[in-house]
Write a structure and sequence with these properties.
- By secondary structure, the chain is an alpha+beta fold.
- The chain folds into three domains: about 120 residues, wza like fold (2-Layer Sandwich), CATH 3.30.1950; about 80 residues, Roll (Outer membrane lipoprotein wza fold like), CATH 3.10.560.10; about 100 residues, Outer membrane lipoprotein wza fold like (Roll).
- The protein contains eight helices and 17 strands.
- The strands form five sheets. Strands 7-6-12-9-10 form a five-stranded mixed β-sheet.
- Strand 13 and strand 14 form a beta hairpin.
- The N terminus and C terminus are likely disordered.
Length: about 325
Amino acid sequence: MRIIRIVLFTLSATCLCVAQQTPVGELNNQSSAALNQLANLPIEKIGVDDLVGISVYDSQELTRTVRVNVEGDIRLPMLKLPIHAAGLYPDGLEKSITAALIAENILVDPIVAVTVVEYQSRPITVAGEVKTPLTFQATGTVTLLDAISRGGGLSDNAGSDVIVTRQDPGADGKAALVQRIPLKELLEGGDPALNLVLKGGEEIRIPEADRVFVLGNVKKAGAFYLTDGPESSVLKALALSEGLDTFSSSTAYIYRKEGAAGGRKEIPIRLHEIMKRKSPDVALMADDILYIPTKSGTKATLSVLEASAGIAAAMGSAAVYYGTR
């Protein structure tokens, strides 16, 4: 008779792993046949807010789905004490439930099966410059590239780094660990260690790329993203602004922020010599203003240029103002 019971229960436990999720309210207090519709998820440790399906052979009142509470416990009918579930694998929770049923004289020889219906304890958030920001649960093996892919890939304005924030597994578990990973190296796959394995609880953020402002005698003045990171330069910025307009000065100026006060220093560059490859290209940094005056020698003041840069940041294009200095 014992063998027949085990065979029947094995069939019931197998059904417990068939994939299809059903709302909690519809599953509570139902027989093991109802659990045939539960999700077939990878075996991971159970955590807070996870939904577990419990099947107790020949005990309809104990066969149900239960949500793990904030203390990491579950409660079952007729049991006076809660059962701790967080941190256990399903087979570990099976043993705990079996022991509790015997200890409280509910059943003499219970046969228990546990499966995870829904994970809610391992959220991964993907935000910033991806096409579809989202939050999903880490089930199975999830890597950093997997997470970015689930977000639809990078947007056109993605910066040069990806920032991964996760909880410090130290004593209190409340401190945050922040890791900045170069996006180009990650995508090229030269260093597999950069493609982190995610366990849940991480926030993946792709910052917006830095910008430079190209103002003055160009065909398309405006703010342009530095998607090339440190490889951005004067020639690339001119290409983005569709080249010089007529009567451009042979000398251009870079206005670069310096110091905490936010002042700018003026860096003259020999623009025509750079364009003729007689002088090396000049690298640009975030928030640089590249200004090309006219041949007349008149220049816009720095305050006017910064005002124009402010318009560029807000509207995506820049008006050009000229004045005497």
